[in-house]
């Protein structure tokens, strides 16, 4: 496996005591002097390391398969690989990216219930065995394209308690699961477990208990049909924001109790998860530059202001050099930005004004913040937006010819040393053991299917 070499992955190693925000402030000053004020991200890899240690401490039984789709930056993937994490891939391209880091195939789950046939063949050729399904059609495709798939039935669960609901698109209805398992048996496919996803941004830990309980029923169904059910995938939905409530520890407590009730240790069931935003949301801060402003006057409106420092007679529109076609695409399907920090060259007054923030494109849809209150900014000032690590740069486009914002990856010397030398039993020195823990004990259905095909021909 590729080791985490800072030079190879373009990671800036900063002195202990010098923070990622210090690095960002220094970078802004450099750009101001150069007169090239392009937007940029700063990714704090220390934050990701802390999240990983927090996961291992609170959910020691659950192996994290990081959702590559959330942020596929190569330095982040390399860090997680060196920490011993595994990976949830949704396409051939994501599989290629993870394999290029030297990650072994048994540390990858192809967790897309609807896959292109050529991508299934690619997974087969490169030894990717674990993959999800939720339909008969998917079973037929896998039967044609993969000789040794270890299949995980994705079930639909209640996702009404999440910001982003996924089960309208993916997940077999519970009443259809028996039919799907019977079809898998007819095709001599090996089903090894069950997966679910409670939705992204889950607000109620109880949703996990309900889904784990439902998974137990499907497990029993599979066992009755003769499958060796030994893998439970509890999906994603874990909070990544520093301010999100409930906290991750509350989710972990509910999950641990549910696993003890429905899948106790002595059952031999391996438990994995697919965290994405949990790992990266709070790790990245975006710096955008004010490239223009427009002042709208309304002298009759100041009487409605509740705060003497807020001057409602002026509404100020700001234009910044990133937008919804770039890093802010996430606000189209998530929730409003609420972590804005002004970076001003000089403070003109203590007054604040109702403000609107627009992105850089010509599209009027490119509205980032419809209403907020800010001190007056000038062209050339900066806005810092926290918690921009999840589903931001990975979905950026080049609409209107604007390029994707650069990302600077930073890590302290102490954290780099921990990763390279192994930390708390997680790291390159312990990967073979950790990876081995997630291999379900499969039967020989793949060989049986190959034998059947030879007899048919």
From TrEMBL:
One of its GO terms (molecular function) is ornithine decarboxylase activity. Keywords: Lyase, Polyamine biosynthesis, Pyridoxal phosphate. GO terms for cellular component: cytoplasm. Residues 430-444 have a biased composition (Polar residues). It is an enzyme of class 4 (lyase). InterPro entries: Ala_racemase/Decarboxylase_C (IPR009006), De-COase2_N (IPR022644), De-COase2_pyr-phos_BS (IPR022653), Orn/DAP/Arg_de-COase (IPR000183), Orn_de-COase (IPR002433), PLP-binding_barrel (IPR029066). The active site is at residue 362. Pfam families: Orn_Arg_deC_N (PF02784). It comes from the Eukaryota. Residues 446-457 have a biased composition (Basic residues). The keyword Transmembrane does not apply. Its EC number is 4.1.1.17. It catalyses: L-ornithine + H(+) = putrescine + CO2. Its cofactor is pyridoxal 5'-phosphate. Residues 46-281 form the Orn/DAP/Arg decarboxylase 2 N-terminal domain. Catalyzes the first and rate-limiting step of polyamine biosynthesis that converts ornithine into putrescine, which is the precursor for the polyamines, spermidine and spermine. Polyamines are essential for cell proliferation and are implicated in cellular processes, ranging from DNA replication to apoptosis. Homodimer. Only the dimer is catalytically active, as the active sites are constructed of residues from both monomers. Belongs to the Orn/Lys/Arg decarboxylase class-II family. This is ornithine decarboxylase. The gene is LOC115809224.
């Amino acid at each position: 496996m590729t080791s985490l070499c800072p030079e190879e992955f373009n990671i800036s190693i900063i002195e202990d005591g010098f923070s990622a925000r210090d690095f960002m402030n220094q970078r802004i000053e450099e750009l101001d002097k150069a007169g090239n004020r392009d937007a940029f991200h700063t990714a704090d890899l220390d934050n990701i390391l802390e999240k990983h240690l927090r996961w291992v401490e609170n959910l020691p039984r659950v192996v994290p398969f990081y959702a590559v789709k959330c942020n596929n930056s190569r330095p982040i993937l390399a860090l997680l690989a060196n920490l011993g994490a595994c990976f949830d891939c949704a396409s051939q391209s994501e599989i290629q990216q993870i394999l290029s880091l030297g990650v072994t195939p048994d540390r990858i789950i192809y967790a897309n219930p609807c896959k292109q046939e050529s991508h299934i063949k690619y997974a087969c050729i490169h030894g990717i065995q674990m993959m999800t399904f939720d339909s008969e059609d998917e079973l037929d495709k896998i039967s044609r394209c993969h000789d040794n798939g270890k299949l995980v039935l994705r079930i639909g669960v209640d996702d009404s308690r999440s910001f982003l609901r996924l089960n309208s698109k993916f997940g077999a209805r519970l009443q259809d699961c028996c039919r799907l398992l019977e079809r898998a048996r007819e095709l001599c496919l090996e089903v090894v477990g069950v997966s679910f996803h409670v939705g992204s941004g889950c607000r109620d830990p109880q949703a996990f208990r309900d889904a784990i309980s439902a998974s137990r029923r499907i497990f029993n169904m599979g066992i009755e049909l003769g499958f060796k059910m030994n893998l439970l995938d509890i999906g994603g939905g874990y909070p990544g924001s520093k301010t999100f409530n409930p906290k991750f520890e509350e989710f972990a407590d509910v999950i641990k109790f549910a696993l003890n009730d429905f899948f106790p240790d002595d059952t031999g069931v391996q438990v994995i998860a697919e965290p994405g935003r949990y790992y990266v949301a709070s790790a990245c801060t975006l710096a955008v530059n004010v490239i223009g402003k427009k002042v709208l006057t309304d002298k009759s409106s100041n009487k409605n202001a509740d705060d003497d420092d807020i001057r409602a007679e002026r509404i100020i529109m700001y234009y910044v050099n990133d937008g919804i076609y770039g890093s802010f695409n996430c606000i189209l399907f998530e929730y409003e930005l609420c972590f804005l920090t002004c970076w001003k060259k000089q403070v003109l007054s203590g007054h604040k004004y109702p403000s609107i923030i627009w992105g850089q494109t010509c599209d009027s849809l490119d509205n980032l913040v419809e209403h907020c209150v800010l001190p007056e900014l000038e062209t050339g000032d900066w806005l810092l937006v926290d918690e921009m690590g999840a589903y931001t740069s990975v979905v950026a486009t080049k609409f209107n010819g604007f390029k994707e914002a650069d990302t600077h990856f930073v890590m302290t010397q102490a954290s780099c040393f921990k990763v390279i030398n192994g930390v708390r039993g997680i790291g390159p020195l312990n990967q073979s053991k950790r990876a081995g823990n997630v291999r379900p004990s499969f039967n020989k259905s793949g060989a049986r299917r190959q034998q059947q095909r030879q007899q048919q021909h």
